[in-house]
Fold these 2 entries.
Entry 1:
Amino acid sequence: METFEFHYGQLFETLTKCLPATEMPTIDRAVDYARNKHKEQKRKDGSPYIIHPLAVAKIVAEMGLDMDAILGALLHDCIEDTDASHEEIERIFGQTVAELVEGVTKLTRANFSSTEQAQMENLRKMFMAMSKDIRVVLIKIADRLHNMRTMQYQTPAKQISKCRETMDIYAPLAHRLGMQKIKWELEDIALRYLEPEQYNGIMAFLSSHKAQGEAFMHTIQDAITQRLDSVNIHHTAYGRIKHVYSIHRKMQLQGKTLDELYDVYAFRVIVDTIPDCYNVLGHIHDLFNLVPGRFKDYISTPKPNMYQSLHTTVIGKQGIPFEVQIRTWEMHEIAEYGVAAHWKYKQGVGNGNEKDFEWVRRLLESQQDTDAEDYVQSLKIDMFDDEVFVFTPKGRIVSLPAGSTPIDFAYAIHSGVGNAMIGAKVNNRITTIDAPLKNGDVVEVLTSKNAKGPSRDWLTICKSNQARTKIKQWFKKEKREENVAHGRASFEAEMRRIGLPLSLTIDPELGPQLLKKLAFDNWEDMYAAIGYGGLTAVKAVGRIRDDINRAVKNLQNDKQPAPLRNISDTPGKPNRHAVNGIIVEDIESCMIKFAKCCTPVPGDDIIGFITKGFGVSIHRDDCPNTFNRNEPIQAARWVRVRWDNQESQPFDTTLELECRTRDGLLLDVATTMTTNRIRTKELNGKDLPGGKSVFTVRFEVKDVAELESIRNKLMAIPDVLSSRRGQN
Ligand code: MN
């Protein structure tokens, strides 16, 4: 049984390191309040309940959170489990603390982890809270961590369900928030209850190799320290055994037994500056033999969760490969505590409110109407979507699409800021406004009352739709004359490109008809629309092209002028009308649909089948369903079709991937799709007998080249065995 005194002592010791002594009376007030409220309650092991909030507050303090969060942690179960009220807590400890406790209470109440649906609902609420104040989520993670640490007192059924929930929700969340240390601990404890045999096997192996492992780690550590001392690089180096869950995962992924799995050791070198990181890397590669293909530079390209380090794998004289991670102290703090470390550094400026987590908001907006399974899917995709988190000079976090520039940042703040922008400072240094931003950058926009406004090439520099829309709006409003001239020029160029006569647009009869097709009252308005980017010249000309061609034909018939052959896209053949990007030979215009069995995309050889009542259905030439095309009765219904090269609409297509079943595979597939900017419309997995599974991915591509490119990338994922177009 554990005592109040022990846990209070532990908390006090932690707090003296991070809080000024003047705050201690308030802490004591909260401890007394909570202790009094939880008075009669006991933990499952018979300890007084108060040890739990004390332990959670200690974890929260170790994360580096602020005073309000520590108070919130101390009081986190008061509303749920005692007669304490929001009003009372607000009166004694202030509004912020009361809101934090309220937020945690809501999450606790949503905590009925039985079915998938219930968990997802829970998760959704969690994110809701998160988008309001991230500290609520951090306290909740700390709460879960302490409950996991004391899991042995729960019933076996509860152990399993809590551990599953931890693996499904809390560990991924900790990962997304960059809190590696907590993520590892959560995963290791969960594995212990979910896969006790594997867990114990690994633990037994590690302890039987303990002496050997420690000797090995000492040797390597000494070698590193000796070398770095000799060149006067101030550093801390240490070896560690990788966490149990990651060893378990590696065994599963690589199908290896423990004896075959050598790289369970990892070394860390922590230095003062970034140049030192690269210097150390050089010395490591000089001391040991490099394992090719394992070097990763997360300093120049941080992970989406802000993680930075250099990773390399080397082999020493002992023949045992091991990983070395090299980072600065600041990177180390961020790697261990993630978003909470940012708290620590930016304390006093960031308030963790409102817009800090745009991705959460967007996720919620797009996911309100879908069921739980879809939700998990899109959540997983979103979690790994490329995003960059930067700070305003006041410490507010702004999330932008990866590759965003100071221009995107300026428009994310306010369109007025973007329009008055004359330059930018990143991390206090003047930079160009098109330089891509990195996670954690502090961005300051330099503005001037005399700024001339955005320039047109900003439209191609910026990465976010928000910036693009706002820049277009500015041009629309401010630059009418310029837009008209600009738009007219691109319209005329496009007309010339495809060989249409400009004279007809001012024809008294045809002119108004064309404008109607384009949905504009006059030509000037249409030019302006093209000029500011609301309409592309290609689209505009596309809409009136057929009418002009018809008029040209009529003119030819009436007056027999010089032939205008170049209008037609296939010389010598009548100009066919394309429907859905398909031209059917011998049929002027008909309904087109794409066969579900083989989902053809531009570039594929195709053939059409005249269906009864649904127009022409387009199959790939090699589709098995075209087997009867040479049978006399059917032959007449098969028609020749071709792609119309003008179209650039996206096409739906389907790939089936046969895979060796493993954890995270679905996620890898989803990540590959997202990072390659492919719009996924459906992603399903199905287990097959014999440890295999099949994933069906439905997505959009513009042509077969893009399809093959993403197919190659999917095939490069480990454990993807084969791929096949179409479905069934
Ligand atoms: Mn609790």
Entry 2:
Amino acid sequence: MENLTLEKIVNMCNQRGIIFAGSEIYGGLGNTWDYGPIGHEIKSNIKREWWKRFVYNSPNTFGVDAAILMNPRVWEASGHVAGFSDPKIDCKDCKTRHRADNLIEAHATKTGKPVNTDSMSDDELNKYLTDNKIKCPKCGNSNFTDIRQFNLMFETSRGVTEGGQSKIYLRPETAQGEFVNFINIQRTMRAKVPFGIAQIGKAFRNEVTPGNFIFRTIEFEQMEHQLFCKEGQDEAFYEEYKTKAWDFLLSLGFKAENLKFKPHDKLSHYAKAACDINYKFPMGWSELNGIHNRTNYDLSRHQEYSGKGMLYLDPVSGEKYIPWVVEYSIGADRLMLAVLCEAYNEEKLEDGDTRTVLKLHPKLAAYKAAVFPLQKNLGEKAMEVFNTLNKHFYCAYDEAGSIGKRYRRQDEIGTPYCITVDFTTLENGIVTLRDRDTMQQQSMTVDEVVAFIKGKLE
Ligand code: ATP
């Protein structure tokens, strides 16, 4: 919808049982969010669709569910201990915290003189801030602390006695759980390169500037797929995964005009190629997912740091090599936000009213149908219809208020079909099915409803 604001999405989520502020009754905990009954269903459906496409329908792909807490050496090998940090500054006057690189990039975009903050030292970033008299976005003053590199990994410690404690981290990405299990999976599943390992799980980042609702949070879920291949196959797989990532979004109902590829301006030292797919969020075009050609960096580093061989033996050619990796990574929560923004609509009706409707793809909707008795005394028959339908897909039941009000309630949470049981149902078993998007109604038997809705879910 044109002119959609994030505020509208946040309010709708709060009002409709989709997403609530975390620990709300205690005043919340900044940038944590709890999914309510409707939100939990939608997010589970998003994850299920991803898993179907990238595991069940991807030949030679295996799923894992690795531990969140990993041996700290993993994060030394991956480079996170040394380099997973952002340049943090604080405004001395209003005490707000900022990322120096973000302030500089915003200034550079405004003045039309691009800078590459990734290649600047802390001293250079400091000098840029002072020379250009960059202002705090909150209070407008230019009175910042010096830059401090702030590691984004959450630290915790294990052990019962203080002396026995040792520092460990909450994983900042799920990918390492796939890399450290490369040999286990290759061996136990008799996997032949090229093959994939996929995972959906929680990740944690102590972001300097979290925000924009569930776009950037400190705790989130990632859906990641690592494709292990031979050097030389990497470029074709990189292109293939760009297409697969794009097609997946279209299959969820995204319009192509709201998506675009963005190649990375600067590659990590180990990467051969990298790009994001950006989505037109209400706050502007922003990253939705990434596709990266990571060379054989990850497995080589784990071989070096663990001392365990990561070589793959090609059973046909007898060749031994460390496989290359093409990674596709997308945040489940960030995708959830994009799905909600894409589906949100306000429509003017003929009677002058406005209806809010969430035009979710039926496979993502929390309830696939809602069953209503026209009047309360039809409750028994309606409950019978509900029980039949609910065996096939998750349904809602509502007998409160006028039929019009009940339609609106379901429109707002994206239920694609409403089924009304009236007096004729008692005689001939025929119900009325109303379509969320067209608001058209048609009569059919309950068996026909099951077949009709199942057809829409495929
Ligand atoms: P960004 O540039 O937005 O910080 P990133 O490039 O650091 O993201 P990756 O490390 O490539 O992101 O993570 C892969 C995906 O995980 C992202 O494309 C995004 O969908 C999701 N993601 C990353 N950080 C967060 C976060 N703090 N909150 C929610 N989702 C996130």
